[in-house]
Each structure stands twice: as C-alpha cells, then as structure tokens.
Automatic annotation (TrEMBL):
InterPro entries linked: FAD-bd, FAD/NAD-bd_sf, RIFMO-like
Organism lineage: Bacteria, Bacillati, Actinomycetota, Actinomycetes, Micrococcales
FAD-binding domain span: 2-333
Protein name per its UniProtKB record: Rifampin monooxygenase
Recorded GO MF terms: monooxygenase activity
Record NCBIfam families: rif_monoox (NF033145)
Gene name for this UniProt entry: rox
Highest taxon of source: Bacteria
Length: 475
C-alpha cells in the first residue's frame, strides 16, 4: 500500500510530493495528461513562494530560469512602488512561465524519490478506516493510506467526495494565446497602451522565443471552456478591442479562462484532502493562483508526513484547513475586488481612481501588497507574542543565514541563549545555537513551514509548545 497518492501533477501536486518525500513518505503522483502542458497560465512567483523555494534549497535553480523584476504593486494593475521595508529578504517578483515552474518542481519531486505516473486519470474513489482506493480510467485500482486531490478546478476527487463548491459562475471570459505577430514592435506597443487606457483586461506583448502573449475578453462565456478558441475567434476579438488583429499567426497554443470564483465547502473528508485549484478557483488577477497552491502544499506536506510517520499531535491534520481555507477566502475577496476595478464602466473607474490616490498612503499600499504577495499571512495560534503565527523572513546569522538551516523540512529552534533544549524531539526538530542582529527574541521555535510557534527564553514555555506542533517526546 502506498502512503499517499496525489491526484494531479501540477505545481501543487509536485510541491506536495517533494515535501512528503523529505520525510520518507512513499508518494505516487497520478496525472491524467500524458505530457506536460505548454499553457502559460502563470507568469511568475511572489515573494512568499520565493521564500518557500529558498527554505528548501530550490531557489537557485529557479533563478537560473527566471527573471527577477523590481518590486511594484500590481493590485488591479495599479502601478505603485513597494514600501522599502517589506518584511521579506526577497523583495522582487520572479518572472518564470508556468511550464518551467512545473518542470522544476516535477524534477525535484522525482529526485527525492516520488513516483509520477502520467497519462493515468483517476475516475473514482472510495475510502474506509484503513485507506483509500482509487480507480483509474484504464481499469486499474490503487490503494493508499491517504489521498490528496490536486487535480484542478474541475477536480474529480472533489466531486466524488460530494464536497460543495459554492461561489459565482463565470460572468466574463478571456481568450489567451502565445503566437507570432507581423505588426512592428513600436506600433504594437502604441496600440496596446491606447487600448489599456480603457480596457485593463486586454494585453499583448513579447513572450520570448519570437512569440507574443495575447489576452483579450471573449464575446461570450462559452459553455465548454475545455475547448480552446479558434484563431478566427481570437482575431475577431482583437479587432473588436484594438481595431487590428496585429497580424497574429502560428499559435503555439490557445486557451480561455474566466472569472469564476469558488471555494470548497471543506478541505478534508476522512482520509482525503483537497489543495490548490481543487479547493479554490478565482480570476487570475494579481497572479495568486499558482502561488496559493504551492503554499497550500507547503502547509499540508509536513503535517501529513507527521501523521504517516506516527508522531502527529491531535488536531494536526485539521489545522491545514483551519489555516489555509481563510487565506483562500481572502484571496477570493481581493480578486473579486480587482475584477470590478478593471471594468471600463464609470462606477468602477471612479473607485479605481480613488484607490489609486489612496495607495499613495504607505499603510494602504503596504496592506494591499502584503495581501497579494502573501507576506502578511499570520496563522491564528492563539494569544501570546505578536510574532506567533507569522512566518520569519530569512535573516543573517553569525554563521550563515536562517533559510539554509531549513532545507530538510524539519522544525527548528534558533537559540541565541545556548541554554535551551529540544531533548526528546531531536528526530523532528533541529537545535541551532547562533546569534543575529535581525532577531529580537532570545529564541524562536519555527515549524517546518517557517511560521513562528514560540518566541522567548523560558524553557518551561518551550516544553509546553513543542508537543502542540511536534507530538510527544520520544522515549
């Protein structure tokens, strides 16, 4: 029997597989597509996801294939500079197309020993007290102790569980494509800039390799959004908005997306979890979708591994939904707001003008940036030090830096006193004695995802906190 089957081999599924493999959990990823998708639905990674990659020693390989861009606010496409003192050591956006992110995360999962089976679609599932049985389209049946549905907005896992997916159906659809153009670059840029003065949902520009990426509102919301648009449909809409089709030809791919907004009623049923788009869908404004899924996986991975390995405390698995579902709900709120703000109607344009002025105030600008990038996430761990529940950014130590100590996905006691101990938890928590000018508390206990579980110097408080996140001490 496999420990965990993951339905879906996109970035959420492969990130989760890597996190589980760090703890020697047997993992099988089942992906229905025989070949990796070439669709570029995401163009980059926000600082919180960049921090996650750094915590696991993956950032250098992503930087080698991506392009860091200076930080600027893009809430509803409103350009404002980031405050200079955001709480992150990675104050930039990493431009990297989703197919490359998919490839790098899948390679990492395979390196760590995850098994990835492509061209295998899960069609049904059933569970009992001992595990979950999944049926594949080809007739094979697989058995695992746990199943995680990372199989997208049309999740088979979610539907088979009977989990409601309430929200709003699509009201607007956009056509998306990568293709070649014949219009000269200067003329293309001038036309696009003129159109975007009134239509923020329109765009066309270089995508590399001699291609351009085009996005334009569709004429209607299609009944079957799995069917890609035709070139004639795309040309018609480009001419409707820009007065020209830019001479588009030779598409690499064409796709469509909508502003459908939905949130799963629950993230768990028995031995089955949901993560990524299987749990939440929303408009792509702000580029939060892929980032949100990676962060779901980062939260769930170490907790599910703790359960598989037999040391998870009571309530550990339920903390996944308790922490991540409110974050997704907040993202749905901000993307709904951004959808309104890009409308060309007079009312939304008036609100947009007002918000543009309000974002000149540092506190407003900071608040919106922290929402979009995930920097401001704080989980509710209860009363205590104001740092509890926040994630600790990478800090310089006298012997290196913090995130270099977190590559193995274990808990960490960073101790500036040298007087504390994690005796009994050494198999789950690293103890590192060092100092930093950037760390105010005498010591901090970090969960494997970098969130602060405890801060202070009282060994009795530390001993009271360790079992909450790391189970009982070893005999």
């Amino acid at each position: 029997m496999t420990d965990v089957i993951i339905a879906g081999g996109g970035p959420t599924g492969t990130m989760l597989a890597s996190e589980l493999r760090l703890h020697d959990v047997d993992v099988l990823v089942v992906e229905k597509d025989a070949e990796p998708s070439r669709l570029v639905r995401s163009l980059g990674l926000h600082p919180r996801s960049i921090e996650i990659l750094d915590q696991r020693g993956l950032l250098d390989r992503f930087l080698a294939h991506g392009q860091p861009y200076p930080a600027s606010a893009r809430f509803a496409g409103i350009d404002k500079p980031w405050p200079p003192d955001l709480d992150t050591a990675h104050g930039y956006v990493l431009g990297i197309p989703q197919p490359m992110t998919d490839r790098l995360l899948a390679e990492r999962a395979a390196e760590l020993g995850a098994h990835i089976r492509r061209g295998q679609e899960i069609t049904d599932l059933e569970q009992d007290d001992g595990g979950v049985t999944v049926a594949l389209a080809a007739g094979e049946r697989l058995r695992a102790r746990w199943l995680v549905g990372c199989d997208g907005g049309r999740s088979v896992v979610r539907r088979r569980l009977g989990i409601e997916f309430p929200g709003e159906p699509a009201q607007t659809e956009w056509l998306l494509a990568e293709l070649e153009v014949t219009m000269p670059p200067d003329e293309l840029t001038a036309v696009m800039n003129e159109v975007r003065k009134t239509h923020r949902g329109f765009g066309i520009g270089p995508a590399g390799d001699g291609l351009h990426r085009a996005v334009v509102p569709a004429a209607t919301v299609s009944e079957d959004r799995t069917t890609p648009p035709t070139m004639e449909e795309l040309r018609t809409q480009l001419r409707a908005y820009a007065g020209t089709d830019f001479g588009v030809h030779s598409p690499r791919w064409l796709s469509r997306f909508t502003d459908a907004t939905r949130l799963a009623e629950r993230y768990r049923t028995g031995r089955v979890f949901l993560a990524g788009d299987a749990a939440h869908v929303h408009p792509p404004l702000g580029g939060q979708g892929l980032n949100l899924g990676i962060q779901d996986a980062f939260n769930l991975g170490w907790k599910l591994a703790a359960e598989v390995n037999g040391w998870a405390p009571d309530g550990m698995l339920d903390s996944y939904a308790a922490e991540r579902r409110p974050i997704a709900s907040d993202v749905l709120t901000t993307t709904r707001a951004q959808s309104v703000l890009i409308s060309a109607e007079p009312g939304p344009q008036a609100v947009r003008k007002l918000l543009t002025e309000l974002m000149d105030f540092d506190d407003v600008n900071r608040f919106l940036i922290e929402k979009v990038t995930g920097i401001g996430i704080r989980y509710d761990f209860g009363a205590g030090d104001e740092r509890i529940g926040t994630r600790l950014r990478d800090i310089r130590l006298s012997r290196g830096r913090l995130y270099e100590l977190m590559h193995r996905g274990r808990g960490l006691l960073l101790d500036q006193t040298g007087a504390l101990s994690v005796a009994g938890w050494e198999d789950r928590v690293d103890h590192f004695v060092d100092t930093s000018d950037e760390l105010a508390p005498p010591a901090v206990l970090l969960r494997p995802d970098g969130h602060v579980a405890w801060a202070g110097n009282d060994p009795r408080e530390l001993l009271a906190t360790l079992p909450r996140w790391f189970g009982n001490a070893a005999d």
